[in-house]
Specification:
alpha/beta; 5-stranded parallel β-sheet; 13% strand; Rossmann fold; NreC/VraR/RcsB-like_REC; 10 helices; Arc Repressor Mutant, subunit A; 2 domains; 213 residues; Sig_transdc_resp-reg_receiver; 59% helix; DNA binding
C-alpha cells in the first residue's frame, strides 16, 4: 500500500526536486503539491494525503506553521512533517506546538527523506539529528530550571518564603513588617538570608529565581 504524500513549498526548484523524489520511489504516491499557504488550505482537505511535507516560509501571508495549526485541528489524521532550512529553536517549537509530527532539514539526503516519511507513517516522530539535539537540549534546560526552582524552595524557611512572596507583590519592608507583626530590622535580616541562600543580589533576581522564571 503506497504512502500518499502532498508537498507544500513556494520555491519551484525545491518543490520539483521533492516531487521527483516521491514519484520515482516505490511505495510512495504523490497526490499533489502547493506553492502557497492559501492553496494548501484548499487542496489538502480535498486530497486527504497521509503525509504533508511542509515548508515554513511560504512567502507573503501565512506560514507553513499557520497552515499546520489550521489543518491539524480539523484533520487530525493528516501527518505534517516540516521540511525546512530553519534550525532555530523558536521555529522548531512553534512547528511542533502547532501539530507537526516531524521536522527535517531540506539538506536531508533523498533516501533519508523517504525513510522519514515512512517512519512518520508508522507512528514515529522523525527529526534531523541537529533538530533532535536542539529539542533534547531545550528539554534539559527546562528540567534544570525546574530543579533549580525546586532547590530554591527547599533552602528557604517558611518565614523567608512568606517574605519573598510579599516582596513579589511589591510591598515595602515596613509594610511587610506590619503585616507579619515583626520589626523592619527582622524583615531586613530575613531578606539578607534569602539573598544569601539563593545566591542573588537584589529583589528582582530573588523573585525570578524563586518563582523559576
Amino acid at each position: 500500500m503506497d504512502i500518499t504524500v502532498c508537498i507544500v513549498d513556494d520555491t519551484k526548484d525545491i518543490r520539483s526536486a521533492l516531487e521527483q523524489i516521491v514519484t520515482m520511489s516505490e511505495g510512495y504516491r504523490l497526490l499533489g503539491s502547493c506553492s502557497s499557504a492559501e492553496e494548501a488550505m484548499v487542496k489538502i482537505p480535498d486530497l486527504k494525503p497521509q503525509i504533508v511535507l511542509m515548508d515554513i516560509n511560504l512567502g507573503e501571508g501565512e506560514s507553513g506553521i499557520d497552515v499546520v495549526k489550521h489543518l491539524k485541528a480539523e484533520y487530525p489524521d493528516i501527518l505534517f512533517m516540516m521540511c525546512t532550512v530553519y534550525e532555530d529553536d523558536e521555529k522548531i517549537f512553534e512547528a511542533l506546538t502547532a501539530g507537526a509530527s516531524g521536522y527535517i532539514l531540506k539538506k536531508t539526503a533523498p533516501h533519508k527523506l523517504l525513510e522519514a516519511i515512512r517512519e512518520l507513517q508508522e507512528g514515529g516522530a522523525p527529526m534531523s539529528s541537529q533538530i533532535a539535539r536542539k529539542v533534547v537540549q531545550a528539554f534539559q534546560q527546562n528540567k534544570a530550571g525546574a530543579e533549580a526552582a525546586e532547590h530554591s524552595l527547599s533552602v528557604l524557611s517558611n518565614r523567608e518564603k512568606e517574605i519573598l512572596e510579599l516582596l513579589a507583590k511589591g510591598m515595602l519592608y515596613k509594610e511587610i513588617a506590619a503585616s507579619l507583626f515583626i520589626s523592619q530590622e527582622t524583615v531586613r535580616k530575613h531578606v539578607y538570608h534569602i539573598y544569601e541562600k539563593l545566591h542573588v543580589n537584589n529583589r528582582v533576581e530573588a523573585i525570578n529565581k524563586f518563582f523559576g522564571r
